[in-house]
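Box 3.1 A note on notation
Throughout this textbook, protein chains are presented in two layers. The first layer is the amino acid sequence; the second is a token string describing backbone geometry. Keep the layers aligned when reading.
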Amino acid sequence: MSDVWPLVHAERYALIEYLEGIDETRWDTPSLCPGWTVRDVVAHQISTALTTKLGFLRGMIAARFDFDRDNRNGVERELGTAAQMLARFRAVADRTSGPPAPADTRLVESVVHGEDIRRPLGTVGTYPIEAIDPALRLQVRTGKSMGGAKEHVAGLRLIAEDADLTLGDGPEVTGPALSLLLGVSGRTTALSELSGPGLPELTARLNG
């Protein structure tokens, strides 16, 4: 836990700094997260930062244990103008609370949602491998029902070209660690940055 939070906080502040230069109208650009705009993803980041274990349980009860509905409820609570949301994001950026889940889920949130926002706005973020590595490892062992990628990568071997990181066995999928994380997390725009004999199977699973 002590290793995760400095990385999470750094990514939150980096995203806030980036968003300070984005015009209000562009906040309504569709993000890489299906059905959500950039504004929605920022609202989700704020909501997640505020979440506690008890609050998560209460939210799930209110959402009748529908995880997607609980996420939508959190987004709706935090929507506002860009200025209002940036102020709110800054206010919660240093928090260390979260839902009852592995701490590395906060890294998945920070990196994947960071790119959900940046890429549709025309930029690509720079993230330390210390954040990407545990996020990718968590995704490949977590089922899709919990937001992971276990079923996407079963029987495939992921090889990061820019890090000492190899996961799984089978036909290889290679590329930058960030692209692997995004690809297995369902962000198909990153598939063009990957290669290898296992890529057609990964692509078919994501599009299936």
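Residues 41 and 113 are 7 Å apart (CA to CA). The chain has a mean pLDDT of 92.
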